[in-house]
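Please study the protein below:
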Amino acid sequence: MTYKVLSLKWRPQTFEDIVGQNHVSKTLLNSIKLNRIGQGYIFTGPRGVGKTTTARILAMALNAGDSPSENFDPNSNVAKQIASGRSLDVLEIDGASNRGIEEIRNLREQIKFAPMESRYKIIIIDEVHMLTNQAFNALLRTLEEPPAHGKFVFATTDIHKVPATIISRCQRFDFNRISIEDISNRLNVIVEKEGFQISKESLYLISKKADGSMRDALSLLEQVVSYCGENFSDKKISESLGIISNELFFSFTNAIIHKSYEDMIKTISLLSNTGVSSNEILVGIRNHLKNILYAGVSNGKLISDLNLDDKKRYVEESKNWERADILFINQVLIDSSQRIKNSDSPFLLFEMTCLKLLEMENSIKLDDLIAKIERENSSSNRGKKTENKVASNPYKEINSSLKTNNDEITSKVSNSKDISGVRHDDSNLKQLKSDELSGELTFAYISENWKIFLNNIQKERPSISAMFEDYLPTKFEGSTLFIQSESSAVYNEKILNKGKELLKHQLELISKNKINIEIELNTNFINKKPPSNKNLDSSKNSNDEEIFNKVVDLFDGEILR
């Protein structure tokens, strides 16, 4: 007796046997019960989910006995002929190899004739999207008004390639990817009836590998049986399917967390030994990252395709990650995927991509950043309050200090280059390097490179840079840099603090020490009174600062000019 492969041997013969498409089966069964049978049906969905099989079962049900019946006998002569493709009244063709207008014209002629043995003459066209436009046009009229005995059933994996004029004349059914649980349950039934001793864990791996396709799952089961013989160990099954262990994926993400080149290189070496292509490995890593991301939401309740132990492990792993980091890594892998596919050294490119991820900067939560800035500001403010308590006349002391250094300020302003041109003439700007500084950080060094500092601020926050163009360094005492505005412009304290943090960060990278930034008042404008306006509402002036602060908060402290 000729051997029959599992995908054909266990092909569904009734609506009850169809796995994972209950919405389709129920609708078709009800239409048969109510005698509301359409003239055309179109089944769309991924490969191997039961589209063609459902079309055959529908043909069996319509041609069963004296009238259409949902409880037809799959072992009847008519049903067997339809199942084997030998029925003269059920014509099944492939749209890829019969895509021309002549083939469709022949179908139109055949459907005109009454069926020979059955009630309906049914035409099933698989991969219907492969037909030419001329063929579709030739089909339109017959599809809209077929003879009473004629029915059409189309199947396609690319519904968007089918003309809307065809879809509108048919009842459309969308087939879903079959869940891992449904595939696993069906495989368990088949394995028991075939007498194979395969564990549920291995069946789960096969179901996961099938990627929603029942046909692929049966083909993989066939492969496992051929490879393992009678010894169905989990290890041998994984080897036969080329399945990468989850341990390797966890090692991969662990190496990124700890930024360990040694662990990453070891993991890459183990991945290469699996024999799986670099792109398939990328798919596995991205799926692993997806599980980590989903596990961090609602304590892993959104993950439906993992067993309980794996789900718990992913929930624990998610606690070590920020969502922004996972999304960034995933995007890097997506961008690299196409380049790896077209590369002459795909695995080398894959290795370099993995090592590149180790240099990724961890993201900082906005709340943490704001809290840090507030702590630093509060510490600075406490120091200022202490100084103010000691001084009997703080304004007099400020003015005196500014007056003392007035000559130095005037000299620096006159000798400085035009800072307003920072954003327009930056072609000759160089990058600041720590090895350019000999000894401690000095005022001369800061003044010389002031333009470069401003340019770096502009790259990060252009709006803040525009404000800082009005400022020049005046002195550097201890670890505190004093800066002063050249104009009478008044800026919001929040914005100034943001600019101070950016400038402070640059200076600390160079000096390797903590730096403070203090902003001084300009004596040239401190005693000048604003022009009077009798018609100006004083009540509004008193609220200007409050209103301004609210606007700044609303737009995240950004002022564009």
Notes: Confidence is low (pLDDT under 50) at residues 389-431, 526-540.
